[in-house]
Write a structure and sequence with these properties.
The chain has 299 residues and is α/β, with parallel strands linked by helices. The chain is 51% helix and 24% strand. Helix 7 runs parallel beside helix 8.
């Protein structure tokens, strides 16, 4: 039995139905792929958005940005161009405007970023870092859509602030320890204290020497205070004057001040300054000063 030839119209309809079925299958596949990509973007630990440069509004935000700000996607979209002006910290707005002016000039693969503070639904400001690059251009080649990725820096900033505060506390503690080491007041015996000084003496350290010496004389009721300057470097006029001031102050509290380790340079400076040496006694070495002090106390 011979098969009758198909009508040309039926042939075209069959081919058209096949093409439609193929297109529908491709569409379903594309929709599935699009849904998968949307889920991936929505689950990213960073906030992702698409910003229409020409209309000045967001056209897409992912779930993380919604979580970060506390506003729904519809609320964010309704804010339109007022989103950033209303939520960004006032102190950051001017620098952001300068930054955003670059969007229309971005090259295809160029990525820029900026840090700023933005207010969430609770009213708290969160530090974020925003990265931007070109997502699409219009028919004329002008930048149309910007792809943005926002990273929450709040916890990192808080950790940095805590580390900085801890570092500052450590510096203060170390400085205090160094001051104590740099101006040690050593009890030799009942009524006798000694302060061996080493290194350079600047204005701050000179003030500390005076403070420690006077407090030590008062607290220990010292009759003799020994200032050993054998290890002092760069004995200039300021240093010599500071030591003489400490000796004079100690004598006013009733203590006999003994200066030991005086080198020729310091002796010349003391003479040149016309220092009244009646406020203190000098000895060549610390050992001689201690012997003299013990003899003085025994009288």
């Amino acid at each position: 039995m011979n098969q009758e030839p198909l009508d040309p119209i039926d042939t075209e309809l069959a081919a058209l139905r096949e093409r439609i079925a193929h297109l529908e299958a491709s569409e379903r596949q594309l929709l599935q792929e699009l849904s998968r990509m949307e889920r991936i973007v929505d689950k990213l630990p960073q906030s992702v958005y698409l910003f229409d440069v020409q209309r000045r509004e967001n056209v897409y935000v992912n779930g993380d940005l919604i979580t970060l700000l506390g506003h729904s996607a519809d609320e964010i979209k309704q804010m339109g161009s007022s989103l950033l002006p209303s939520l960004m910290h006032p102190d950051d707005w001017a620098s952001y405007q300068t930054y955003a002016a670059q969007f229309s000039q971005l090259r295809e693969s160029e990525v820029i970023h900026i840090d700023y503070r933005i207010r969430d639904l609770t009213g708290a400001y969160r530090w974020v870092r925003s990265f931007e690059r070109v997502f699409s251009r219009d028919a004329c080649g002008a930048v149309e859509i910007i792809l943005g990725l926002v990273q929450d820096l709040t916890e990192e900033r808080h950790a940095d602030a805590e580390r900085a505060a801890l570092r500052e506390q450590m510096i203060v503690a170390q400085s205090a320890a160094l001051r104590e080491i740099g101006t040690p007041l050593i009890p030799i015996s009942q009524g006798v204290v000694a302060m061996p000084l080493v290194g350079a003496i600047d204005d701050d350290r000179a003030a500390r020497i005076l403070e420690v010496l006077l407090d030590g004389i008062t607290e220990r009721r010292a009759q003799v205070a020994i200032l050993d300057v054998t290890g002092v470097k760069e004995m200039g006029e300021r240093t010599a004057a500071a030591l003489c001031k400490a000796a004079r102050a100690g004598s006013l509290l009733g203590a006999k001040v003994i200066l030991t380790g005086v080198q020729p340079e310091m002796a010349r400076i003391l003479v040149a300054l016309g220092v009244n040496t009646s406020d203190f006694t000098t000895r060549a070495t610390l050992q001689e000063a201690i012997t003299h002090a013990l003899d003085h106390r025994a009288r």
